[in-house]
Amino acid sequence: MRKVLLIYTGGTIGMVKDPKTGELKSFNFDYLYEHVPELERFQLELSSVSFKNPIDSSEMTLCHWVDLVEIIEKNYVKYDGFVILHGSDTMAFTSSALSFMLQGIRKPIVLTGSQLPIGTIRTDGKENLITAVEIAAAIDEFGEPIVQEVAVYFEYSLYRGNRCSKVSANQFEAFQSPNHPELAVAGVNIDYAKDKLYRTTKSSPSFTKKMSSSVGLLTIYPGIPITSYASLFDVRINKALVLASFGAGNAPSHPELQSLITNYIASGGIVLNVTQCNSGSVKQGAYHTSSFFQKSGVISGRDMTTEAALTKLQFLVANVTTSEEIISLLQVNIAGEISES
């Protein structure tokens, strides 16, 4: 019998309405089958564990990611798959972070959530939970897990965890992965895009418990007062910086911005350039307004999501010794986060 562990961090999916007060509160996962009786029809052993103090996903921190890694490491041998119930607002950050912290895994780790509490009549939470559990338990004709990576399941679609972003606050189709195909689509059957699934080349899994908070994020916008953001370019505060630029990696030819970047890189700082657009890729040097980045040593993030770029840097800064190695690893695929050129 396949064994799946549910990990509840908090968020909308785990909420039910108190019949006396009408307030939403986290339900007791010891009584999971009372809320989702359909799960009993699966021929598998389903267990659950919750954060001691479940949180809204807006409160998610690097320490909570470490907590998740520790839970998975402790239970990795005992279970065939994992489903993490998580608020949708920061789910793409968590799934991206876990993809780097849990390299070498050969079991599914599926994050899911909902837009409506599981205790409401029209909830999307039940379907998301049921299908996420089915995916976490699914095996191929050789008895191997079909999914062997960190993924996000939401509203009939399974996405690579470090390739998706939340795009809607009020639609059930809350996530998209425009630069990488869906890993699976759930209809009458769950159709897996088996040629798109990630397979590790590592001999054993690693459970990394260090992430650096010394990484900044600057989103460029028209008329940006550069001096207001000068502290971001202090290498004593931020060892690395994600720059969210326009289009294919463009930014205004602002002397102060260029000076800040030049001095920051000369001081040992690392700048990673990603596009603000939902789809497409950074192509530094394709336009005059990005040629400075190419010349100054800014690293192209290509088609990484902002979530993946930020968490990859947080992972690398914490775990890689030299800037040269960090820069090298930023330009290669280490967990399926970049499209092959």
Low-confidence stretches: none
| CATH fold field value of the largest domain | Rossmann fold
Superfamily (CATH H level) name of the largest domain:
L-asparaginase, N-terminal domain
Helicity, as a percent range: 10-25%
CATH architecture label of the largest domain:
3-Layer(aba) Sandwich
Which value, in Å, is the CA radius of gyration?
A: 21 Å
Number of domains: 2
Number of helices: 8
Shape: globular
CATH class of the largest domain: Alpha Beta
Distance between the termini: 41 Å
Strand order of the largest sheet: 4-1-5-6-7-8-11-12
Structural write-up:
This protein is an alpha/beta fold and 341 residues long. It has two domains: 2-196, Rossmann fold (3-Layer(aba) Sandwich); 215-330, 3-Layer(aba) Sandwich (Rossmann fold). It has eight helices and 16 strands. It has helices spanning 32-35, 62-75, 91-101, 125-137, 255-266, 288-296, 306-319, 323-330; strands spanning 2-8, 15-17, 24-26, 44-50, 81-85, 109-112, 150-154, 157-160, 165-166, 175-176, 184-186, 190-192, 215-219, 240-245, 270-275, 299-300. An eight-stranded mixed β-sheet has the order 4-1-5-6-7-8-11-12, sandwiched between helices. A four-stranded parallel β-sheet has the order 13-14-15-16, with helices on both faces. The protein has a two-stranded antiparallel sheet with strand order 2-3. A hairpin with a 6-residue loop joins strand 2 and strand 3. Helix 3 (91-101) packs parallel to helix 7 (306-319) and helix 7 (306-319) packs antiparallel against helix 8 (323-330). The chain is globular. The protein starts with a strand and ends in an 11-residue tail after the last helix.
